[in-house]
Amino acid sequence: MAKKSKSPDSSTPASSPPAKVNRSVSNQATREKTLGKILELGKSVSKSALAETDPFVDVPSRTMSNTSYNEVRRLLQMGDATLRRNLFNTGQARKFMQMVLLSKGCKDLLEAQKTLSLRGMYYMSLHTIAGTKEKTFDDQEESDGILEDIEVAIATLRENLHLFAKKRGTMVGNITVVDNGDSIDCRRMGTGGYAIPSICEPSVVQFGKCDAKFVLHVEKDTVWSRFNEDRFWEKHNCILTEGSGQPPRGVRRLLYRLNKELGLPVYCLLDCDPWGHYIYSVIKQGSINLAFESERMAIPDAKYLGIRSGDFVRCELSDDVKISLNDRDIERAKQIAEYPWFIKKKHWQKEIQLMLRNGFKMEVESLITKDISYVTETYVPERLKAKDWID
Amino acid sequence: MDASQQTDSKKSSPRRRGATAEEMSEKQREISVSEFFAKNRHLLGFDNPRKALMTAVKEAVDNALDACEEACIMPHIYIELLQRSETRFKVTIRDNGPGIVRKQIENIFGRLLYGSKFHRLKMSRGQQGIGISAAGMYGLMTTGQPVLIISKTSKKKPSVEVLLKMDTSKNRADVVSETEHPEDDGLFPDGHGTQVSIELEGRYQQGRQSVDEYLDQTAIANPHAHFTYVNPSNETIEFKRGTNELPPEATEILPHPKGIELGTLIQMIERTERTQIGGFLQEEFSRVSPSVSKDICERAGITGRTWVKQIGHKEAEAIYKAIQEARIMSPSTDCLVPIGTKALLSGLLKEVKAEFFTACTRPADVYRGNPFLIEVGLAFGGELPKDELIRVIRFANRVPLLYQQAACASFKAVLETSWKNYGISQSRGSLPDGPVVVMVHMASVWVPFTSESKEAIADYDEIRKEMKLALQEVGRKLGIYLRRRQRMRNEGERRSIFERYIGEIAQATASITGTSAKKIYESLLRVAKRKTEEADAVLNDEGKRVRDSDPFGKDDSVVILPGRVAIAQADSDDDSSDDSDEGSKKSASGTAKTLFGDDDAPSKKPRTRKKA
User: Fold this and answer.
1) Domains of chain B
2) Is the terminal CB of chain B with fewer CB neighbours within 10 Å at N or C?
3) How many whole angstroms separate alpha carbon B476 and alpha carbon B470?
4) Whether residue B6 has pLDDT greater than 60
5) Residue B3 pLDDT > 50, yes or no?
6) Which residue in chain A is spatially nearest to B610 when comparing CA positions?
7) With an 8 Å Cβ cutoff, is A63 touching chain B?
8) Catalytic annotation, pick one of A69, A122, A123, A256
9) Is B596's CB within 8 Å of A145's CB?
10) Distance between CA atoms of B215 and B57, rounded to whole angstroms?
11) Is A123 labeled as catalytic in the residue annotation?
12) What is the pLDDT of residue B546?
């Protein structure tokens, strides 16, 4: 099987002029390239079947041990380790079958030039195996995992397979985007904001006029709503995004493109707990599970604005906002501190140590105890002005 | 009254004085053996009513079997328990043996320690000549009823009926009445045989250590005998023969020099008719050749020509010591008659409803100069209970041992065997658990029992070692069988896993590439078949593949009843009550884990497969 190539295959064309309406899901060249790769996988299976050998697919391994931190490029990269998945292995037969089945599904999808959600693809390939009571998939989770395997196995991206995830994440700000040919002014999105699509490839989303000077990414939509209502993006001339916790690929891809293509710095406002820290880590250098996508998603220059363990004292917060760290939090915090991309950063080590010493975590909402708009009117503007962030 | 009490009483009552030697001598007299055992009946196995009933049956049946075999008659033994009242039974045992001549009847049934088997070294069930007379004595003591014996020695002679009453003080029996039955009364269709009826106090209860269990096990160890058993509920149970071959007769042997003790040696020297010590050694012992005799004499500092009369205690001790030092061949072992693997299997087959049977007869060995050999039989699976400790049934010279299991060498040997190696789970220091019956048989010219009631075999190192070797041998065969059974199940499951998915894979691949789905399917099916065969290939001890998939090919010490395997399988799969396919899928993935390990590491957490 083909190994994953080092560079992403999508040719990332410069944003096409917004005037021209482009409603195709992906361009023809990319589509044919992906179809070719699926065909290659199919041929490898049929070839070894007809030769009466054990068919297999090599799946690059998506584990911590196969992930390395590139200190020069400041992002996570997937190593060369692969796992061979054989048909004639009782522990792998079912997964092998699912892989072939979903490859076929993706092929049909590409040929129809349509897109489907992950759930849609799960349903498309779901049926009872002839002569048994066993279903091809037990749940969507099983199918999602296999689709990620296919992505890495044939070195393509989910977007190129015409698959998208559930929409998550919102955006407002001084920018106009063209989404599937429709021009959207993010300055006029009301209280709801622009729902960031799952596929944010240049072939689908292009950037129009942009006056914003930076991007503020917050963890959850509740905080985002506070900022939006206070018209923060207008006052500070920025773009405001949220990713409903761990940001999905669409949000990360959009942030990456705003940073790379428009040169906007990205600041993050996240909870002061190991999970918030890891969200920042994923935005900054990519995730372990999707290390193969770091190159097109990681923003090594992203900054962590807050909130920080020291803010409890600095902002004179009341004891009511403290949430005790549980065993899992402590374990996770220590784990994060040990990650190669954290271990050399003194500020981060200090931050995590302080949190562990404090013995409590805080959510962004804790700032609301000071004043409803404390976070938008005082906290963030002060930090930005003082360039008080952790890198 | 002890000394301290005497001195105390002197102070308080000066009139009281101790008995004189003369006065005491009036009370001193011989205690007859019968009296001793009458008071110590627990030593003979009559401790409680339930055990007494079983022991009475056992003693009579043992005698009957010994008599039949010695006379080369295929035994047919009739056992009847007639319940007179809640605690009173009349036990009748009738055999088709050679019968007993009239003048010996009182001795055999009326005297303790009277018998043909004590003085010779020959493998037999009875040894001391205590059993049946003790049973009669127990009956007399508990019910006052005499023992009724009917015996017929040949077709031409009338059968003799004798009523015997034991006189415990004299170790003798008094004849109460004696009648001849000239006409053939139908009791002995073969024209000869013995019937003994004892009325005794007992308690009948089925289950462990009952008459029923004794007969069950006797039938296993004596597949050449036919038993007809009428229980107290008046139901007749037949234990049919499993073989029509009479076991060969055991031969008598001379004692082996290493097997005797100093006292016995001195006694033998006193009694011998030989005049010179060399001749004495060569003629009265087995395995003493002229050169061995010379060696012993030299070591003892005498010559072979030394007169036996001149051997005093000192010389005897020197000879005894010399014997221990000398190299003497082990006693000949052809005096032992094993049950034999074939007969063992036929016994187990007819009495135990299992799926797998194996047996093993060890070569003979020697303990304390007594030849012995160990046989072990094992039955597994089938209808045997699954969640219980395994059952150990013990035999000595074909007689089941029902009591004192924990004290018995065979039980200890079973405990010490690592059953885990053979696929049977065992917690530390206890019996393994699983659907297994293990039978351990010791055949010897002299079985070392721990007590006169013959309930447990004494724990000699040589004996236990042999037992363990035999258990390991049957254990290995069980292990091979269990692994093969597991493999066969795995093979089926594996093949079904592959076959389940091949269809899907063929269709999807065909749809991607345009190749014929049928072709891909058929090719994959062939690979599946080959792969499962490879994975299930039998590997021999060196890990090389054995072509023959049946590991027991021509091994006639193993019997497998596949019909009962199927029953066992159905039972073990019953957790998949409503959705059999789902169940087998689960177990299949479980096996795959143990066989291959979980190869698919990246999956974050174990997925629970729910029903859709």
Assistant:
1) 37-239 (3.30.565.10), 257-325 (1.10.8.50), 353-569 (3.30.230.10), 573-612 (no CATH)
2) N
3) 10
4) no
5) no
6) A138
7) yes
8) A123
9) no
10) 9
11) yes
12) 47
Q: Does A103 touch chain B (CB under 8 A)?
A: yes
Interface probe for B, chosen from A47, A57, A85, A88 (most Cβ of B below 10 Å), is A88
- Closest chain A residue to the Cα of B596, Cα to Cα: A91
Q: Which two tokens stand for residue B339?
A: 């049950």
The tokens for A125 are 């390939």
B391 token code pair: 């059952």
Distance from C-alpha of B163 to C-alpha of B146, rounded to nearest angstrom: 6
Q: Which two tokens stand for residue B10?
A: 């002197």
**In this complex, is the C-beta atom of B518 within 8 Å of any C-beta atom belonging to chain A?**
no
Proportion of chain A above pLDDT 90, given as a percent:
60
Q: How far is B247 from chain A (nearest CA, A)?
A: 53
Evaluate if residue B345 carries a pLDDT over 60.
yes
C-alpha A67/C-alpha B322 separation (Å) is 80
- pLDDT above 50: residue B594: no
Task: Enumerate the domain spans of chain A.
Answer: 28-164, 170-386
Q: What are phi and psi of B224, to 5 degrees?
A: -85, -5
A29 touches chain B (CB under 8 A): no
> How far, CA to CA in Å, does B136 sit from each of B140, B149, B453?
6, 11, 15
Å between A8 CA and nearest CA of chain B: 22
pLDDT confidence band for B575 (50 / 70 / 90): very low
pLDDT tens for each residue of A168-205: 999 999 999 999 889 999 999 999 999 999 889 888 89
Q: Looking at domain A170-386, does it have CATH number 3.40.1360.10?
A: yes
Contact B196, B149 (CB under 8 A): yes
- pLDDT confidence of residue B304: 84
Calculate what percentage of chain B has a pLDDT beyond 70.
82
Other beta carbons within 10 angstroms of residue A19's beta carbon come to 8
CA distances to B325, B332, B444 from B328, rounded to whole Å, are: 9, 11, 19
Say whether A97 and B504 touch across the interface (CB within 8 A): yes
Q: What is the ipTM for the molecules in this complex?
A: 0.77
Domain A28-164 has CATH 1.10.10.10: yes
Do the chains contact at B509 and A46, CB–CB below 8 Å? yes
Identity of the residue in A83, A107, A133 whose CB atom sits nearest the CB atom of B579: A133
Is A30 a residue whose pLDDT tops 60? yes
Q: Look at residue B12 in the predicted model and tell me its pLDDT.
A: 53
Residue A59 near residue A114, CB atoms below 8 Å: no
**What confidence tier does B367 reach under pLDDT thresholds 50, 70, 90?**
confident
Size of interface A-B (CB pairs under 8 A): 136
Question: Residue A117 contacts by C-beta under 8 Å, 6 or more apart in sequence?
Answer: A163, A164, A165, A166, A198
Q: Which of A37, A40, A46 to mutate to test the interface with B (most CBs of B within 10 A)?
A: A46
**What distance in Å separates the CA atoms of residue A220 and residue A268, rounded to the nearest whole number?**
11
| Mean pLDDT confidence for A227-254 | 93
